[in-house]
Write a structure and sequence with these properties.
With about 180 residues, the protein is mainly α. About 75% of the residues lie in helices and about 0% in strands.
Length: about 180
């Protein structure tokens, strides 16, 4: 059970690191756009749109990575005050009753949204904007995010079941701000 969780999380961590490197691409492209516009009075709409879609990809691809590092938003009213076993139970129930249903709904609605974009061979409405297939690919990242969150949810459940069975709970001293 733990081997499966480790393999799934390794994939999520790899994708999270790729998303982090995408931020470098986004920054460099932004610098190019600014230099071209302000020093050479030259601009391309597709470059500006690519920055926007890259920004969206960073967030969408990084969501499961953030969840894997327990850096997501958590309403912590009583969670810190309870035992590790109770925290594990809360994480399992929260994943099953909150994360999975929301991901299911998003998969259903997001799937139709992305599929429609592919059917229409959608491209930017702006003259000189991104051509097909960039817009549908960007919208497909929504589905990738959902699948990655579902996989990370499975990791959370597997790790917490293992911890409840063995009594081997991870320490609360989790490193923050890991260098990618």
């Amino acid at each position: 059970m733990l081997k499966i969780a480790n393999k799934l999380e390794a994939l999520i961590l790899l994708i999270g690191r790729v998303a982090a490197w995408l931020t470098l691409f986004m920054v460099l492209l932004t610098v190019v756009v600014v230099v071209l516009r302000y020093f050479f009075d030259f601009g391309r709409i597709w470059m500006q749109e690519l920055v926007t879609w890259s920004h969206a990809a960073v967030f969408l691809l990084g969501a499961a990575y953030t969840l894997s590092h327990n850096e997501h938003v958590r309403v912590d009213i009583f969670y810190r005050r309870v035992s590790s076993a109770t925290q594990a139970r809360i994480d399992i129930v929260g994943t099953l009753l909150l994360l999975f249903p929301v991901c299911g709904l998003l998969l259903y609605t997001g799937g139709r949204y992305a599929w429609k974009s592919w059917q229409l061979a959608e491209r930017s409405p702006e003259t000189g904007g991104l051509a097909f297939p960039f817009i549908p690919l960007g919208k497909t990242f929504l589905l990738v995010m959902i699948v990655l969150l579902l996989l990370q949810g499975a990791v959370i459940i597997l790790r917490n079941i293992h911890a409840l069975r063995t009594g081997d709970f991870p320490s609360d001293e989790r490193p923050r701000g890991e260098v990618l």
